Structures are given as C-alpha cells and as structure tokens.
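Dear Dr. H.,

I hope your travels went smoothly. While you were away I took the liberty of generating a structure for the chain from your last submission, since the lab meeting agenda had it listed for discussion. I wanted you to have the full record in hand beforehand rather than looking at slides cold. The sequence, exactly as received, is reproduced here:
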Amino acid sequence: MTFLRFILDDGPPPSFDEMQAGLQASEPEAGFISIDDDPFAAHLAYGEVLLAVVERNVPGDGIFEDELDDLREEVLKQDDQRREIVLQALQRATGMVAFQPLPGDLEFDKPMAWVIDWLFAHRSGLLQIDLEGFFDAKGRIISLL
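The corresponding predicted structure, in token form, is as follows:
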C-alpha cells in the first residue's frame, strides 16, 4: 500500500483543526474525522466517505524515528546525486504528516492534494511518496526511490 509523507523541518505537525481550516477553504465537503479522539490520527473524508488514515508523527512517539530510519535506508540505496538534499532534510525533520489511502471509489488525489498544497503553503518540508520519491513545493522531484 502506498504511503505519502509530508516531512516537516519547521516544528511539529499542524493540528487536524489547523489543516481542516485550510482544507475547508478549498473544499467545504472535505475534512478530518477523529479516530477514537486521538489527536495524532484521523480519517481524511469527503462528505461521509473515508479516503485515508492520516497520522501526525512527532519525535519520541515511537513511529517518527523508525519512519525516518526507513526512509534514510531507502535513500542510501539510490545512486542519485541529489540524495544528499533528502538526507539533510531527514536530519532536520521535526515532524511528519503521513497519509495511508483507503480502498474506495472516490478519487483520493484531490483532497490529498488540497492538504499537501496547504502544507507546502504554510509549512516547510518535503513530500515523500512511496515508490516514487521526494518532491519540493513546486512538485519537482528531488530524489527517486
């Protein structure tokens, strides 16, 4: 299953309320639904349809460091001159917003793109997409995976 991760380098990940406000500006029917009142996990939804599980990861949560280690390991396998840019970004990482798409009929790309666009507009970091690579705010690929 493909994961997407927005790797922040300017502080902890925004709350779901912050991302919800940004998402509502683009599409009022899209939003976040809490999972068991967990401030670090929610569903991205469009109306009543659940599109993805979204997690906010921070240092010390038991996931953040493992994810960064796995990404470093994958980047180091690549023969890409630009991989050093990614390795430095991973070293500076302060938080992460991870998306796991759920199976369904509704297109996941648009609501996810709205959230990613909002993150790039309001925060500093890189987007990582499994089996594709790392991308900057302009959608340019920085390093392949």
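Two observations you may find useful: The helical segments are 16-26, 64-76, 83-92, 109-122. The longest strand covers residues 49-57.

With kind regards,
E. W.
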